[in-house]
Amino acid sequence: MKLLMQRALFTAAQVRAQDRHAIEELGVPGFTLMTRAAHAALGVLRTRWPQARSLLLLCGPGNNGGDAFLLGALALQAGLRAHALALSATSEGDALRARQAYEEAGGACGSADDAPDLSAFDVIVDGLFGTGLSRAPEGAAARLIEQVNASGRPLLALDLPSGLDADTGVAREPCVRAAATVTFVAHKRGLFTADAGDCCGALHLDRLELPPPGFQSPDAELLHAHGLPPRRRNSHKGANGHVLALGGDAGMGGAIRLCAEAALRAGAGLVSVATRAAHIGGLNAARPELMAHAVEAQADLEPLIRQASVLAIGPGLGQDDWGRALWQSARTRELPCVIDADALNLLAAQRVELPEHAVLTPHPGEAARLLQTDTASIQADRFAAARALAERYGAVVVLKGSGSLIAAPDGHVAVCPWGNPGMAAGGMGDVLTGVIAALLAQGLSPWEAAGLGVGLHARAGDHAAAAHGERGLLASDLFLPLRELLNADPN
């Protein structure tokens, strides 16, 4: 159950319900929860910054501010120095009791409008708003956030960085940029997608000694790291599927080559490529394990499709007559398929019924076209967009981006916690398409193939970036770590 709670993601409303359940049904006083939160935060602070001797506490008017005040009281009792800046002259309820405890411990409290020299503090603690803010910070709070972000001092956020939407991961500017965030009770789903990666820093979850919430189901879940079990010794290439990668119009042969090689590296037994004749020589020279076929007319494609068990269509496809002809042939077959890039744009232009076992892999711009909206609307609520896409097209959908989401038509959503900015480079999506297609070819369901494929792809990117840095990361750099991760212990 501990693993489940580490992976379970909840909305802010669900977490508030867990708080109420703890207080009203389990009999845990609110101040006790606040005290546990303060102890948890102090533990994270002392672990991450063991040399810290002085804290600046940013205290909002609600319980998030109460957490910060109690942290300050504990820090003072432990021999550290603390100074608080409060947004309001008074507090209420448990937050008032926490404020009094801080003052009784000898803590000084000033106004948020009168910030001292920030360079005098080793760590700044953000207890301004937590999940209690539904709009952009304003006034003194906004000015204070801008000051601390510019200070260069490490920030510890309590529950979540102030200004970050707990449900969508959208940063309402100004938003705290924390070095670490200790979140309480449960993971909020917005901590893992959109702007969260730029705002949260290292994430720590503390359940505050509460049992798992048996009265509610998570809104989403985090992917977990695993590979595939070892193959049977008595195995052959035909048992591991035959992927046909379709694409590579004039000038875009690299896209379909990356897709097809990724399918090989991810374990497909056979991989064929249907592409323009001009690319055949290059494919044969660079990767002879691929079976490259020149397809200049729709009739050339028919025998290739008959031999395939999975289709991967879209990388370098284009939207001219040639690309539309390949798309027309592919979409009418009842084969498992991965639909990406220009195939998604063709689908957006003319919605058609898809094969039963289809996976769509749009980036936000493609998702906007599929839903007939704009990219900003997609990014404003990635969870809603992914679910809408899966429901509308009756397929598993991978909404790519920071914190990629995998959504099923029944509303189930998984979130990828890996990946890095170096992967924002050409060809990365083509590799992902090939990986998912290979997993489909090896017998995984669309949901399983999409989840495992996204996780392997992101983790391979992290391994490659750790070796040589994020800038300059190439899509083909993922091939070696991808193979290693795929063959790692599946448990």
Whole-number total of structural domains:
2
Helical fraction equals: 40-55%
- Beta-strand percentage range: 15-25%
CATH superfamily of the largest domain: Ribokinase
Q: How many β-strand stretches?
A: 19
InterPro entries: Carbohydrate_kinase_pred_CS, CARKD, Nnr, Ribokinase-like, YjeF_N_dom, YjeF_N_dom_sf
Domain YjeF N-terminal: 15-216
GO biological process, one term: metabolite repair
Binding site for AMP: 400-404, 429
Draw up the topology in text.
Blueprint: H1 2-7, E1 8-10, H2 12-24, H3 30-48, E2 54-59, H4 63-77, E3 81-86, H5 93-104, E4 108-111, E5 123-127, H6 139-150, E6 155-158, E7 180-184, E8 187-188, H7 196-199, E9 202-206, E10 220-222, E11 242-246, H8 253-265, E12 270-275, H9 280-286, E13 291-294, H10 298-307, E14 310-313, H11 321-331, E15 337-339, H12 341-349, E16 358-360, H13 364-370, H14 375-380, H15 382-393, E17 396-399, E18 405-407, E19 413-415, H16 428-441, H17 446-468, H18 479-486
Parallel strand pairs: 1-8, 2-3, 2-5, 3-4, 5-6, 6-7, 7-9, 10-19, 11-12, 11-14, 12-13, 14-15, 15-16, 16-17
Antiparallel strand pairs: 1-10, 17-18, 18-19
Helix pairs in contact: 3-4, 4-5, 8-16, 10-11, 12-13, 16-17, 17-18
